[in-house]
Structure formats: C-alpha cells, structure tokens
TrEMBL record:
Top-level division of the source organism's lineage: Eukaryota
GO biological process: DNA integration; proteolysis
The protein's name: Integrase catalytic domain-containing protein
Keywords on record: Endonuclease, Hydrolase, Nuclease, Nucleotidyltransferase, RNA-directed DNA polymerase, Transferase
Source organism per UniProt: Holothuria leucospilota
Domain Integrase catalytic: 875-1036
Amino acid sequence: MKSRMRATAPVRCDSNKSGYAVHYAGNGNTEALKTFHKCWICETSTHWVDECKKLAAMSYSQRMEKIKDYHACFCCLKKAGKSHRMANCKRRKQCTEMINGKQCTYFHHPLLHKPQESVTGSVGITLNESAKAILPIVQTKMVGPKGREYTGNVLFDSGAEISLVSLSVAENLNLKAIGLPTISEEIEEIQEGIDLQRLKLEHSDVKRGSGPLDLLIGVDLGQMHSGEMRQSGNLVARHSPLGWVVFGSCQGQSTYQKSVLHVKVSEPINMTDFWSTESMGVQSQNCQCEPTKFSKLEQEEGKIISESCRKVGKQWLVPYPWCKDPYLLPDNKVQVQRTLQTTEKRLLKNPVYAEAYNNQIREMGHCLNDYWMKGPDLLNNLVGVLLRFRQYEMAACGDISKMYHRVLIPEIDQHVHRFLWRDLDIERPPDVYIKTVLTFGDKPAPAMAQTALLKTAEEGAVKYPEAAQMLKYNTYMDEICISTPSATEMTEVTNGIDKKLWQQGLDWDTELPEEDQSAWNQLFKEMEHLNNVTFERCLTPQMAKGRPILCIFSDASEDAFGACAYLRWSLTNDDEFQVRFVTAKSRVAPLKQLTIPRLELQAAVLAARLGRTIMEELTLELEKVIYLTDSTITLSWIKSQARSYKPFFSARIGEIQNLTDPVQWFHVPGEFNVADEVSRGISVNRLKDRWKQGPNFLSLPEDKWPLSKSEPDQVSDFEKRNLKAKCSKHGEVKRTGNSLTSAELEESETYWIREAQKNIVNRFENGDYKSLSPFVRDGIIRVGGRLKADFMSFETTHLVLLPQKHQVFLLITRHYHSMGHSGVACTAAKVRKKYWIIGVQRLAKSIKYKCVTCRKMDHKVETQRMANLPKERMAPYTPPFYYTSCDYFGPVTVKVGRNKTTKHYGIVFTCLNTRAVHLDLALACSSMEFIQVLRRFFAMRGQPAYILSDNGSQFVGAQKELQLMLKGWNQQELQEFCAGRGTEWKFTTPAAPHQNGCAESLVKSCKIALKRAIGDQVLTPMELYIYLSAGHWKSR
C-alpha cells in the first residue's frame, strides 16, 4: 500500500493493554490539548492550527495574509502578544523545507515557506459571438499494438506541433507514452439545427460523438490533415483519412464555452539527491562542538525507537514513534469507501491501471506521516560499503528477504494502517484489513527496520561475531556486500545461515524456501568487463606482504580539479611491488573563474577528504599515507600557518591541516602526476594502463621515487651546510643534545666548497683562470694577488674561487642579499669579502629582481609628471633673496629664567633661485613678531621683490599690517624705504604645503640638524639665536 495512506478508522483499542508506551508531543491530557491548541481559523477545538485543512488548502499569499490579519506567531501559528514573539517562541526552529538542495535558513513554520515559483505559459482567448464554433472532431476506432480496440474522439489541430493522447486511451491500448489526464473539456454532438445540406452531406456521414477528447492530431502527422474540401459560408467540411470532418461556425447553436487546450508548467528541479550522491566520500563535515553523526533531535528519536524495540518470538516488534496523540486522528471510513468504489470502477474498466492511489492525498487536513517522528539515518556510508566490498579477494553479495515484513508492529499501529478490499466483488460489503508488519514508505520505517537489524547483530555478536560485523558494517538497506581474504573465512561468515538450513533438514538438491533463497551470495573474483576496461575489485594482491602505502594524487586545470587514490603493496618476491586503483573524485571548476593556484588548493582539499573517507572505511592497516601534488605553491600553503591568509585560503588550509599532517605532502613532477587525467580527461587507451596501474614509479623502491618536500630553489641560506653538519654530528648531537659549534659549521662549509670546485678542476689545470693567479691550499682553490699586508687576514687577501653555475654559488649570494636586502653593488661587495665568484654582479642583480621583499620595498607607484619650474626658480642676473620663500618651524623650548621655560619659533628664508638659506628666531607666532623678523631680514639681506609663504594666519596678518603700515608712510619715505621697488607677497593654496616645497624641505633639514646639534638641551633665547645665526651648520 502507499506510504501516505491515511487512517481508515478511529483508534478503538486501549493503549494501556498494548504493553508499550505511545510517544507523542503532549502531556497525556487530550482535553488540555483541545483547550490550548484551538484552531482560530475554523474556531474549533478538534484540531490544531497547523493541521487545519483550510489553511493547508490556501495559497502562500493567502496564508500570509491570514497570519498577518490575526497577528499570529510565524513559528507556532498561535496568537502573538507582548510576551509571545517570534524571537522568544518555544517552538522556534529552522524551517525544514529545502531550496536547491539546501535547508531553508529562515525560522518560520513550514506552512509559511514561500514555494519556488513555477514558470507557467498559457494561451487564452475571448470571443463575443452568437454563433457556435465547431472544432474539427471525428469519432473513430483506435487499435493498439496488441489488437486492443478503443472508440474515441479525435481532434485535428493544425496549430499543434505534436500529437497528444489521453492517459486513459494510452492505458487501454497498452501504449508506452506520456499521457495527459485531459486534453480538453467534454465536447457535444452536432445538433440537428445545423444545416449540412449546404455541404451536400447527411448527419449520418459525419461521425462525431460526445464526451471527452481522446486524441489530438498535430501537424507532425501532416497527411492526416489532407482531403477533399467543401465550404458554405463559415462552415467547412473536409474528407480526412478518418472520414468527413465538419468545422467552422454556424447559427445552429448559440451556447459557447471557453476552454484552455494546453497549459505548460515548468516546475523547478530539486537537485538535493544529485548533489548528495555526487559528494559521496568527499563531502565537507559540518562544524559541530562534538564529533557526532546525529543531531540532538535524531539522537532522542533513535533512543525512543531503540528502547521500545522488543523481541516477540523470533521476530522484532517495533512500535511507531508517535509525536502527536493518535487519538486525534479522525474517522475517514466514508472517504475510504468512496475511494474503494472509484478504484474498483477504474480497475474493472482498465485492466492495466498503473496507479492505485494518487500521491500525497490529504484527508481532512491530516497526514499520517505528520504524526510520527522520522528517526535517525542509520544506513552505512555507501562509499564505505563498496570500499570494504573490494578489500579482499573472495566476495559475496546478497539480500535480506522481505526485510520490512520481518518487523512486527503493535496493535494500535496496526489499526492506523487499516484498508478496505473485497476482491472486486462489488455485490458484498468490503472487508476491513490491517497491516501487521512494517509498511514500506512510512516516514520512520527505515530507522525502525535498521534498528531491528542492529538488534539482531547485537543479539548474535557472541555466537557469530563475524556475521554480526557483517550486518553492522557491510549492509546498505537490505543489501549485503562482503569480502574476505579466503574462502574459509567466507564459509565462517555464512555459518549462521548454513546451520539454519541444516536444522530444517534440507538436502543439497532441495530447492531452498523462498525466505532463504536470497540469503546465499554468489562468489566472484572480478567485476564484469565494462567497455573493454576492467579494474581489480580486490585491493589486496595474492602475494602481498606487510602493510600497503596509500598514495593520493591531486591536480587541477582551468576546467576541473580532482584526486585519485592507489594502494601500493610489497610482494613476497623482493623488490617487486603491485599497485591497485582504489577510487577517484573530480569536480568541475566553478563558473566564477579561479586562478590555477586556487584550483590546486581546492584539489588538495578534495584529496584530504578522500583520504579521510578511505581511512575511516577500510579496515586495512596502512603503513603510511602520502599526498602528492605538482603545485609548489599549494605545498608552501599547507606547510604554513592558516591564520595568516585571507578567509578563502585559511579555511581550506585549516581543513587540510586538520585532516592530514603537512609532512605527508610531497611534490611530484607534473609528468608523473596521474591526477592530471582527472582534471583534463583521458582516452580509453591510457585508461587501461596508467590510470589502472598508476604512475610507473609506484612499482619502484621508495628511494627511487621522484618526490621532494619542496623545490631545491626554496632551500634558503646555508640550510644544506647546516644539514651536512648535523648529519656528520648526528651521533653526538643525539647523545648530548648540544647545538652545532662554529668549527662544525666551518667544516661543513669547507666540504660544500670542495664539492662545488670539482666542476672547475679541469679548467684550473688548463689555465683558464690564469689572470686570477689561482693556487691550491688545503684542497681549496683560491685567488692570488699582490695584497701581502700583515694586518690583512689570509681569507681576505686570497678569496675562495667558486664556479659560475653551481647551486652553492646561488645559495651564498642569496644568503648575503637576505642580510639587509641591500642593492646590487652592496650584495656583490659582501660576497667579495670571502668568495670570488665570476659574474657575481649579474647574479646579485638577478636575485634582487626576483626577491619578493625587495620588490615590495622598492615598488614604484604611478606618479604624475611634475609641471615646469616657475620663472622665480630660473631668474638670471638677480641677487640672492630677490625671490624669497619663508616658513615657520618649531616650536623650540627655551629657558627664560631659573625654573621657567617658554616656546620660541624658528623662521627659514630661502632664495628660490640660488637656494641660499637665512635663519632667524621669532619670540611668538603673531603677525607683529613676524614683521619684526622681516625687518631684520630686510636689513641684512635686502628687500626682495617677491615673497612666497604658506597661507598661515600670521603671514596673512603680516601682509595686511604691512600694507597698513606702508599706507601710513608718505610717498617720499616709502620710496626711500623700498628704493623704488615694491614687494609682491604671494600665498599658496590652503592645505597645499607642497606648493611651498622649497621651504618645506629646508624645514625638515633644519629640524634634523638642530636635533642632532643640541639634542635634549634647553637653551636660552640668545643662545638659540646665535646658534641659528651661525653659518657653518647651514651649509648643504
């Protein structure tokens, strides 16, 4: 029966006599439930608001309007108030509806979840005519492929691109087609009032029936629309292959009915199942405080099901976990009887009736599944079941026969599964049946069946431990897939079933009973050929010894990224190895284009998840697990701190570091990375060899693998030298724990120098370095020369000669460059203190150019091109300070008494043409004080023709006061004072000090010089004035 079948009779049995407790969300008081859960829509106490059939039948907009008008809570649908809001509602929980595979993030009741909009296209037309339009319809006999006949109405539609058939006709004729429930409304016969004599036809010539439309012939069957045509006014007759067809309009009938012939609805596709299947084995884990598989609600529901499960004879009895009171279920026997009668009519009329009941029927707003808890998902991981199935050589698979029918249900649960039947004998009243076993399709049925299965395994764990492990870990629903190292162990696993057969007294040639036939599994050694490509099912070779190595490759391209895993076994024969393909996963690159390094990091995450799944699901003991990638950037990310990167990188690096150890990651050259096939695709021929067996180096000893933890260029400074010293000193270091001494490091450095000079021994003997006067001392080739001073050391006068192209040569130069990140000349000079490297200047330049730190520090930003210099900066034949710029600086603290200090200011005057400098001291920052300083400047340097200053208040005030002062002088005195020349005063734009850059740069120099000269001393005003007037420190 269908899983959503409603209760067929009210519950009459006494729950106190059933021997178990009914679990539902209530306090056991039915009257209290009726009082506190009143439906405010129907104004009744027979059901709750969320069970109201009127609310369920409303559209989304109508529900929202009702809820808002009543001021109901969006969580529980009850009346809201000051003390009951959505934020503090006790039933506040996240909506359980799914949107594109993800759970809705809003906290509202599921009935208030906005459904995804359907794209609907329809065609409608309105005609205001008194005449009746007649469609081209003919009644004819239709014959199916097996000779079945059916008489129905056929419509010729020249506006349809395809032909359509109704569902009832397709079923009657046993056609394989997608039928429509209805094509149009019911049609009428041609009435006698229509005059067919004008078309030279009789009513008997036109075969047109009434009732539903059964077949629509479109233009895809064009030959059916041909034939002789007769016309009289708007009435047309055509002699089609099926007979005469009359269509058009006439005055014989005045009634008119509007019809919609076809409505196209495009429902959004739910991708939840697709994505859950696609991410098997590599899905990301949800962040949880505790590493638990089930939520708290699922744990509580699972505990209820497990504790109520009990043994009845040889079977398990599991009550349904009620979350609502079953006594609230209404009596729907009348509706079921009507459904039975309708079903009987359709079955008698249509022998091949496909569906017994429509899905998701709601009777009086109640759905039986809503009264039950769902329970936890107790199914095993399908990827793990398949991996364990491939683990060993001997394999077996089987099926638990009638798994759901092996689980009994108690009396009260049986009565809510009532149904009526009378074997199509409509003359007698129907019989009432009940389901006594678990029903497939009920919401908690999977959890109840799995609970019974696990209870069976626990019960027989002591006597049959292997069979118990098989039921716990190697089953998926009712399917069993196991593998063992040998046939003996396979026999031990099946001992329990074998013993049961012997107890029944069955012989070898006796056909097994139906319930035992599915218990036996057919053994096989390898999977069937698929497109001429086969893979070994068994992951363990026959001659394997020791523990295998799990190798996981990852790679990415612009189109996709992925990972693949292999098990590498050692065989009993020395130096022989065998590789087995385990599994692989790939992902298409996102539509938003990512860089290759980011995709490589995504592939590394996929590899880490794949490794976690394999290690969790396989029972093999692994020697080690290594991860291989050809991206050095990804390796450096994995080996660094995740928190130092942006969220995109830190989240993925953190996940990789949680799932793996950074020391497990190695670099492999791109030509050996077999995961390249995952990201770029592979042909069938290559699929047979490299993809199946992995790269060739996996069949070699580990010391011959082309792996490295990092690129050689990434070894900094003298790391190799230190490593050499540690290796030679390993025994002592391990014993004493002391650090390396300078003598040990010097000895290691000497070793690497001798190794590097082996490449130039021949050139030295041939005299290629004759100009350098080389000689050998202590096995090291050194440069000669004429520096023989006693105060200079031997290492300074005779440098070590090193070849131009050697790794030591690069490491030494990089080491000295990293000490300060200086320029090319400075780096070369540091190297030349001890080593003579040919072409060191060129190498230092290359290292500085590639140095990331230097490129950041010396980075030149885009700047605007400076304008031409003003004429004041290039005035020829003018005395100093003819064009002058001035600015304040300070304040400077001076002492005016024994214990009293004050602040004075310095003023800098500079010639814009010669850049001469004049310094003076101002006692305050007022305009009058500046005028006094300006008079002293005029007296010492002469009166300038042009003065430039900042737009400071003291300068503006000085200009105004100077103008007022000059206005008070008479013309003769003004001429004598200015010597016939006026002084033009110009101010810079406010908040634009760069326009007076000449004075600003000198202010900086004056501050630095003054700070270095007097330090923290506090001078008197006179001492400060004399110091500013001194000319020796103003020289630049």
